[in-house]
Amino acid sequence: MSLAQRSSPIAAIATAPGRGAVGIVRVSSPQPLEALIESLTGAALKPRHAHYGPFLAADGSPIDHGLALHFPAPHSYTGEHVLELQAHGGPVVLQLLLARCLDLLPGARPAEPGEFTQRAFLNGKLDLAQAEAVADLIDASTESAARSAARALDGALSREVTQLGDALVQLRLFVEATLDFPEEEDVEFVQQADVQGQLAALLQRLEQVLQRTRQGALLREGLKVVLAGQPNVGKSALLNALAGAELAIVTPIAGTTRDTLGSHIQIDGVPLHISDTAGLRDTEDLVEKIGVQRSWAAIAEADVVLFLHDLTRLDDPDYQREDAAIRARLAAHDGQLERHLLHAYNKADAAAPELAPAGALAFSAQTGAGLQALRQTLLQRVGWQAVPEGLFIARERHVRALAATAAHLREALAQVSLPAPPLDLVAEELRLAHEQLGSITGRMSADELLGEIFGRFCIGK
Ligand SMILES: Nc1nc2c(ncn2[C@@H]2O[C@H](COP(=O)(O)OP(=O)(O)OP(=O)(O)O)[C@@H](O)[C@H]2O)c(=O)[nH]1
Ligand SMILES: [Mg+2]
Q1: Which residues of 262-281 are buried (b: 16+ CB within 10 A; e: fewer)?
Q2: Which of 7, 44, 360, 393 would bridge with 149, disulfide CB 3.0–4.6 Å?
Q3: What is the CATH number of the domain that holds 84?
Q4: Which parts of 59-190 are beta strand (E)?
Q5: What is the number of structural domains in the chain?
Q6: Which ligand neighbours the alpha carbon of 253 most closely?
Q7: Residues lying with their CB under 5 A of ligand 2, a single-atom ion
Q8: Residue 372: CB partners within 8 Å, gap ≥ 6?
Q9: pLDDT tens digits, residue range 266-290?
Q10: Cα(384) to centroid of ligand 2, in Å?
Q11: CB 68 within 8 A of CB 37
Q12: Is the peptide bond before 74 cis (omega within 30 degrees of 0)?
């Protein structure tokens, strides 16, 4: 997009497509909107006050009657001049209103998806993490996800990141200042200031933020859980029990399920996508064969594979042989899959409890016994810990940036701990750490910030 396009007025229907009681057309423009407002409503609007009246077509006839709200810059969502029109929520009415606004604004064009929020970011109304939280709040699939998105939008993640950034700036400042005065005794200087101790403390704080950010990413991304195992172990029965609905066909016939079948569920507010698969076995049946191939494909993509066993058949030699074959194939997946495996033993209602291996998860999809423990173990396995204080939603992008920041800090700490610390390398690691951290909010341009501080303190030449 060219600069001119980026600064042109934009307008869009802000409410969901389809019919509704109310529909909203929103306009944002770098130029004042008074002329548009005058032509459209025949009135002058008091800023930030609801005004009821007609929305006028070019010939002066009303398109609709509704509420108009004017937010002059900079006190608006985008930071530009914004007008919101609340009309009746019919697609034709809203299209007419949108077209009228575009006609009345020289150079105006329909807004691209997310463009109002993008302008809010560019005008400093939101940082990058907050802008992402807007989308996450709209997309939230569970109550916890929605609340956490609201907290991130409120700046919970941004504040943590900014505080870490401030501490990092102090360290960078110190190390770079030491570099600028080579006549000083570097080693002593660094030791006196306990750069090592400060770095270690910073790293510790960062790890805590990283842990919370991981939880936030889990809430947002959800997780893929695949139910796998031999035919007839009760995979479909478990899917139904977890989903609380009769989604999959359950019969005593081995090979009932052929298609992979998924459902969205939540456990303690964590969204999970759970898939039932065809029972794993060698088969001549063409349809079932394809089903088994799909099972393996689903297993390869899963975040967690819930490997189900049938307590009533554990001592059956045929069952044992098939079990060994499946385990061997799972192990053959470069050990990657085995890390995601969670074994669970079904039909506890029909078997003696001591049949399950010691410490194993035993449950009954039929009676529901042990399901609660199964749910909790599943959450633990995916790394979920209920964080008492406010959780904020986060993205994989944030997790990666924080992990990269931590890696640079660890490297810096290792350098500082050497008998003769190579300060230029330490400074470089700190700079890289800062850059990674700054990418989360998109606001902290690391070197600008440092330049500002150096300027203020008049250090150097
Ligand atoms: N006693 C008992 N029977 C169960 C339990 N769970 C499932 N079953 C029975 O086990 C049989 C197989 O259940 P399914 O859920 O169809 O098994 P599946 O693993 O999906 O089988 P495939 O689709 O063939 O791979 C059915 O007759 C179920 O009623 C349980 O907890 N206790
Ligand atoms: Mg099944």
Answers
A1: bbebebebbbbbbbbbbbbb
A2: 393
A3: 3.30.1360.120
A4: 62-71, 81-89, 109-110
A5: 2
A6: 1
A7: 235-236, 256-257
A8: none
A9: 898 888 999 999 999 988 999 999 9
A10: 28
A11: yes
A12: yes
